[in-house]
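Hi U.,

Before I forget, here's the chain from the pilot set. I'm dumping it here mostly so it's searchable later in email.
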Amino acid sequence: MSSAYAVELPPACVGCAQDEAKASANKMLMDAIPISVWTDKTEYNHNEMIMVSGQVANIASGYPVTVTVVSPLNSIVTVNQIDVAEDRSFETTLNTAGAMWKYDGTYTIKVNYGSVEKSNSAKVELTGGVVTTPTPSKCGVNEITASGQCIPFSISGGVVKSATLNTDDKSIVINIDAKKDGTLTVTPSKKIQDGIFMVLVDGEQWDDVEIDKVRNKVTVMFLAGAEKIEIIGTFVIPEFGTIAAMILAVAIISIIAVSAKSRLSIMPRY
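Structure:
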């Protein structure tokens, strides 16, 4: 006679099916997003490490993920490039103890993977800083300041370091740090620049350019190592602006009037 043993089954997992469905939906959503990014927390002190993680939907051979951190003052805090793992993930750490992180406020962590379309961002708050955050710049995160003007731009393969307006050549001069071949797209307001017809890269006329005159938009395909891109048009806003020009004109007229009066006063009378 054989003995029979009763086997006690574990209780049914309450909510397991819902958790599995949610995890599956989240995975499908992440797989559909070109690039995603998140941090281990949303608020940090000024002496902590920010753990940044993310995932790309499809691996592009040879392309790293570019991580750019923008401060509450709309200035670039740091730029780094991260290789993507075989499982499509990437991660890095950011040390908030540096001098560039001293202001309290919202820091934007932007990630880019080879093109403008493959970009995303996460925001974190820093508190407990010694210095209070001043009034932020009027330019947005995706704008660069050129002689006090805000110009929308996007870049892949490098970073924009600075920009100026050249009123003599009617051009926008943009200094970049090109780590590899990439593209720079600039869309200035027609009040800032109009009639774009030529682009110079490091002083040489560049043909690998797309100019959309209707949208006043120019896209430049540059090579690794490029340092300066100059966009030339038929008009660029005067450096001093309309009010300053009017003041200068009034001053010149006043000088002419005073000079004429002085000449009349010294003329001999008969």
